[in-house]
Design a protein that fits this description.
- It is built from 7 helices and 10 strands.
- By secondary structure, it is α+β, with helices and mostly antiparallel strands.
- The strands form 4 sheets. A 4-stranded mixed sheet has the order 8-1-10-9, with helices on one face. Strands 2-3 form a two-stranded antiparallel ribbon.
Length: about 240
């Protein structure tokens, strides 16, 4: 199976924001909500006076949002992409609060978590993510990192990469930046709110109780197969 990775060459970004608009349109995002962004920071060495850093969900190898989700609605697929099962999401916001990159939000109408999934429906049709297709300077390179013939695998093999990581621990982001990038200090320190943390514990206990209940049902079923109710030894002093 493919292992999808995005590499970003910040030196090519012109801040045209076509990637943001393309993402909004293709994924039908509500006005004022975004799955990706372009950060701007002063840079005296740049002709424009600024450095630009495109970003989106970092598709972490050890995503805190997955660990924080009490219903397992947020999960990491075998292809490396972190997704949201909107049928299971209860809108508690725990995944939003623990993401150090601010890459998630709650849909104001549906009340469920939303984030970049590399345009999963489009990829199923053989298309690149919208942000990649829309970038005129090809600042974003996307593909299968496990395929040595894929452009992203080739460029990762020869270029130095920078991973933007929060200070307290690394969730091991798989979205990387080619060469240097500014700023590298924008991930925020996060902590799960106490009620949400307790919800996660309770949900885990409920799942265990559910599993135990299932074992109980299976046990009763097997007992009925081997020794049906009413089929025990009969009293020899009683007649039929």
């Amino acid at each position: 199976m493919a292992r999808y990775v995005m590499a970003v060459d910040t030196s090519r970004c012109m801040n045209c924001r076509a990637c943001i608009l393309a993402c909004q349109q293709r994924n039908g995002l509500r006005y004022g909500y975004y799955r990706n962004w372009v950060r701007r920071t002063p840079d005296a060495g740049s002709p424009s006076g600024f450095a630009f850093q495109p970003g989106s969900c970092m598709q972490c190898e050890n995503p805190p949002c997955v660990a924080a989700c009490p219903t397992l609605a947020t999960y990491k697929g075998k292809d490396g992409v972190v997704r949201v099962d909107k049928e299971r999401c209860i809108g508690c916001g725990s995944c939003v609060s623990v993401c150090p990159y601010g890459a998630r939000y709650r849909d104001p109408v549906l009340g469920v978590a939303d984030k970049c999934d590399y345009c999963a429906p489009s990829r199923a049709l053989g298309l690149e993510p919208a942000c990649v297709q829309a970038c005129a300077t090809r600042a974003r390179i996307f593909g299968d990192a496990d395929d040595p013939n894929d452009p992203v695998a080739k460029i990762l093999a020869v270029r130095k990469v920078t991973r933007v990581e929060p200070p307290e621990h690394s969730p091991k982001p798989t979205q990387v930046y080619l060469g240097e990038t500014k700023p590298t200090d924008w991930p925020r320190t996060t902590a799960l709110a106490a009620p949400l943390a307790m919800m996660h514990v309770v949900a885990g206990a409920v799942r265990w109780l559910g599993a135990l209940s299932l074992f109980g049902v299976v046990g009763v079923f097997l007992k009925e197969l081997v020794l049906p109710s009413g089929s025990g030894p009969r009293d020899p002093d009683k007649t039929a």
